[in-house]
Design a protein that fits this description.
The chain is of the alpha/beta class. The protein has 2 domains: 84 residues, Urease, subunit C, domain 1 (Roll); 292 residues, Metal-dependent hydrolases (TIM Barrel, Alpha-Beta Barrel). It has 13 helices and 16 strands.
Amino acid sequence: MIDARFRNARIVLAGQVIEGSLATRDGNIAAIDSGLTQAGEDLDGDYLIPGLVELHTDHLESHYRPRPGVFWDAMAALHAHDVQIIGSGITTVFDAVRVGSDPDLPNMGEHVEKLTGAIAAGREDGWLRAEHFVHLRCELPAHDVIAQFEAHATHNHTRLASVMDHTPGQRQFRSLDDYKRFYKDKIGRSQAELDDYLAARQAEHDRHSAPNRAHIVARARELGLPLASHDDTTLLHVEEGVADGVAISEFPTTLEAASAAHDAGLAILMGAPNVVRGKSHSGNISATDLVRAGLLDILSSDYVPFALLQAAFVLPQRVDGLALPQALATVTRNPARAAGLDDRGEIALGKRADLVRVRVMGGLPIVRGVWRQGVRVS
């Protein structure tokens, strides 16, 4: 593979930032040196950071379904998504694909097939700029979630699954009033129609959630597929996740749940948009408050790809005593380790040369170059 060399860079290592040079060989980091050298591309004092690792982004689905009832060509959607992902400094991405139908998406299995098929084809044909894996978001109340999970869980690109329940009155929306305020205009229903919709969703939860969870947890254990919980709100939710063997607690909604998950050894994942905005879009706990409490391990871009890099540079400004290397670990080393990808996520000898050149301009981290395994891709 083509070797790359860089000089005059501020290199962000695991515990410090040094000024110096870096060289790659055969796709891995071969040398890191402090001080001046004449060899390599001059980065003009810009930061050189590890490629970001994203474990949960819904952004591919946003390209595939840009408007209600509008479904784009899956390959074209993946291409647009991939360009934005790599342009945001993300070199490894777990594309979250919902499995399980609902009244708004009654034939979800068809869409899952198209999306995961596009990812498989892109990986095989070698045109994707970032490395893409699949994260199966298993909506437990759905009557067909098990069938869709089984159809895709054994593929070699499927590397993570999460068990979630967005039933009104559960987890993220414990308050039905909050749910109604959030979704009334979004789903375009009258109050009477919304009440009927809520009743139907709660009936599905009562019928399907528990047995579907039991099946998916058992199969994930058999397959060695890492598992995440979603929107943990209470101690009981965390205890259930621990009993099920989950490794990651995604988007806990309360300090109580986050503390319990931390004590149980789960990796805690929160949304980078929450950090950038300074609050949750649905009124739950602030991710920055969890950082201050020492309760956050991983950030996810969720629905805004660039938010991942932006949040990592914002956090040291908002949290006393938090240095840039520690903030960047939440979007590089920590998610890589949680997903079992120990070959990447930090700038160290022998690690993959997934690298991002960043210059801070007007307080915003601007991506000026991206390399995956030493090869420039953006």
